[in-house]
Amino acid sequence: MPALPANYRALPGSRRTPRKGALRTVDASPDEQIDVSLRLRRQPDAPALPDPARSRPGAATLSREDFAARYGASTADLDQIAAFATGAALAVVERSVGRRTVVVRGTVARMNAAFGVDLGIYKTATETYRGRDGEIHVPASIYDIVEGVFGLDNRRMAEPMLRFSGRTPADNVPTQATVPMTPQAVAQLYGFPATVAAGQTIGIFEFGGGYLASDLQLFFSSVQAPVPNVTPVSILGQENTPGSDGYTTETLLDIGVSGAAAQGAKLAVYFAPWTEQGWVDIVTTAIHDTVNRPSVISISYGWPENDTINGLTWSLAAIQAVNTTFQEAAAMGVSVFVSSGDSGSGCGVGDGKAHVLYPGSDPMVTCTGGTTLSNVSGSSFTEDVWNDNGVTGGGISDIFCPPNFALPVWQAGANVPGSVNDGHAGRGIPDIAGNADPDSGYTLFQNGANIGAVGGTSATAPLYAALAAVLNAKLGRPVGYLNPTLYTAPFRSVFRDVNDGRTNASGGAAGYTAGPNWDACTGWGSMNGTTLLNLLAPAPAEGTLGFIKTTNTPNGHVEVHLASGSSGFQTRILETATTFADESDGTWQFLSNLDLGFIKTANTPSGRVEVHIASRISNYQTRTLETATTFANETDGVWGLLPSLDLVFIKTANTPSGHVEVHIASRSSNYQTRTLETATTFANEADGTWQILANQDLAFIKTTNTPSGHVEVHIASRSSNYQTRTLETATTFANETDGTWQLLPNLDLVFVKTANTPSGQVEVHIASWSSNYQTRIVETPTTFAEEQDGVWSLVLA
Known about the structure:
Low-confidence stretches: none
Number of helices: 12
Largest sheet: 8 strands, mixed
Mean pLDDT: 92
Shape: globular
Distance between the termini: 58 Å
Number of strands: 47
Structural class: alpha+beta
Radius of gyration: 28 Å
């Protein structure tokens, strides 16, 4: 390789080594034209992503447009990369703010020079590929902008997870313990609440092959289901190209299972090359697709994390790019399901060690293992670890472990074992499992012919993706990133534990054994969809009704009173005095962890607004924060603390522009730095309640003087600097001021009525966002008598 220019630096995580057994035979042709994708950093002033470990179904999510505006690449960075490409005689063929991607085209010779690599042709017994050995280099001027460069190396990095039944169609008779099934029949056994998901889109990843419309017609006719609306999406020139290969079979299986188990859902099938670049581009394209907008992703492909003698065949930069995009999916409420693999603990590597496949090992996806269904009789059936004509993947990640990645906190209580290789702790997979045995699989048609039953963990990812789509349709909101929820104790009832003592050992590698609760063969087990729906549906009523009594207390100290939602707000779970003396010169609120916050806005010693916090864990006797802020005392508006503990002031009167203003001071600066000061689309207004949502959108609940006589909800987006109103609607509630109004994180509307109630008790009323606030999902009196000497709120802690 020629000497690097003095100003070039190696990109972290870009190192790659040749495939195991590969020999470099010749230099890559200098005139070959290739496309390369550059992944850029987020805009430098972007806020931190919401913590996915704290994700819960029903939480507020960002639209793809809002996400791009807030977290996408900056125009300046995109322009700088385009200028670099032009200087290197490379053509810019695509640039995307949301994907944070610039695709450039040029010859191998120019790519070698631009990125400080020496591309060659490598050969193994089964593959010839263009590759590199070592790191990618970029000029110092763009070093801080570029997170990864993908496409220089085109070795295969994807294989489908499917297995064919050894039986012919004539071999299958009803008296056998295990027989082929339809997706609807399996969905019924797993308690799906329906097999209809109108209004949803499932994204399906494919790395080759394709489908014929005539084959889809044959399959869906055979299972008596309507043919879904299927849209192919080409990435990096990979088209829908059906053939006789396993990649086409995989495509037909994915479409068949998801389409039959989630009827009415649209299917967007993304086709990409089977390379590392293909992975990065297919993930970023689907997650940020503003045309098809998939709410669920199904991935039936993977590649061993570690299949070379010298280390990772995946570059760390590629894994970080894909993992980060899965985090972005969580912020947008997109669920991702990935197969664990069909070759057991060995993953087909053949080195006598246990492995797992990526991206199934990514903590940001729900990984699906495999079981065998047999002895089906009505709703009764037997379910075992799949380990005969294929073996469920599962094990401990070699990548998602310290020091490169922290262990997923939600898996801490699952008793995940150490790796059978060396005992190290890592992300354990799978999370869940389902029907994968091809003998209990699904009969497909390829090129017009019945090819028999097909299964594999390839069949479990689209099945559970279908369930997520059904749940989204039922709930009227996305279930989103499920892992933190599935690992909590209340959700144990969702699972059918597969505890048969079988192992997934394969290929001379030690394996893992199925046992009680979570194991590295089948995770928690198979899921019952109706049980899951019932646990997810009542989320708003499971909050805690809090009352902060701030005046006229018996002992002269502010009191905290809490009633549990699970009791219908009839049981008081806490009643206690706090460290604070009675005080009304400011704003009181519960934080998301039930800590008590007080923002003192008048009569402070310094003349500055002060923030005081007392911890729930100390029974509100210990103050964990007491500090003056950058803001002078001010009462012409609403004060609050965000989940990040940043301080928000919504100035609603006496503004210079006559428009409501938003001011935010950061917790990280001890409230001395204002990170936002801006006027909004709203004229000054006092006839209602103002609130900054968790995603920093601005909400106004207009409770009096509305044209319709009904309470209205208005929201302006943070991504538009509060200039665009994303929601304006009247609700089921008549104008009302005898209480407290708020929006929950899932945008459901809460009214705590504190006076003039029929029963004389405080009442809780909730209208769902999914019904456009026309359906009241909670209306109940509480344990509390009417009371106005304080602050009421519903807290989802």
